[in-house]
Amino acid sequence: LLSHFSSIGFWGLVNNAGISTFGETGWLPMETYEKFADVNLLGSIRTTLAFLPLLRKYKGRIVFMSSIIAYFTLGNGIYSMTKAAIERFCDALRLEMKKFGVQVCIIQPGNYARSTKIQPALSADEIWSELSEEEKAVYNKEYIQERANFFNSILSEGSTNGNEVVDAMVDALTSPAPKARYMVAKLKEKVLVFVCALFPTVVMDSVLSYALSK
Fold first, then answer.
1. Cα distances (Å, whole numbers) of residue 121 to 6, 20, 40, 156, 190
2. d(CA 38, CA 179)
3. Has residue 6 got a pLDDT over 70?
4. I need a labelling partner for 211 at 20 to 30 A (CA). Which of 40, 52, 62, 68 fits?
5. How far is CA 211 from CA 9, 59, 121, 207, in A?
6. Contact 11/61 with Cβ under 8 angstroms?
């Protein structure tokens, strides 16, 4: 594969693969955490390392699909964890690649669940059936139903304009001066990121706790 691209040039790499799920920390088994880290984080790193020699040779570009969920979480901490990790990987890579003329860009979409179908709606029964006996002793079905309704309502509010994210990816690959980060999100989502980045953690915790209580 690398020898094939060596003859025609290799100009851009887009790391877009990702999976998502919903659930509080103790609801998910260790195997699920390992799977998410393997796909969302290590998968992008594997691909990047494989093509790095060609990207350096042709002064190419690398685009990573992150998310505003890298900054905060509302019931999908496992997904947020992987996106926060990929952001830090990209920050290191971007600085290291400058001397080779390779540009590294991060796309940070808001809620595009209805465009990507990355996360199917979950029923309370599905969640309950996967819980360990220890977790079932702590939570009840009514709580599980409330959380499922909350998360499914977020999914239903997702934008269907996936072309907005694609446009950002194209700009990252073709612009003479691409941005390090492209945040493609609704105003209220950008405000959440702003609060998370600039205000004390206790403020963000209060905002998110209020949202979860609704």
1. 44, 11, 20, 9, 24
2. 27
3. no
4. 40
5. 49, 44, 19, 6
6. yes
Rounded alpha-carbon distances, angstroms, from residue 206 to 147, 196, 201: 18, 11, 9
Please give the positions annotated as active site.
79
Superfamily for domain range 12-186: NAD(P)-binding Rossmann-like Domain (3.40.50.720)
pLDDT in tens, 84-143: 999 999 999 999 999 999 999 999 999 998 898 888 888 899 999 999 999 999 999 999
**pLDDT, tens only, 68-78:** 999 998 888 99
For residues 8 and 206, give the distance between their C-alpha atoms in angstroms, rounded to a whole number: 54
CB 125 within 8 A of CB 84: no
Q: Where are the domains of the chain?
A: 12-186
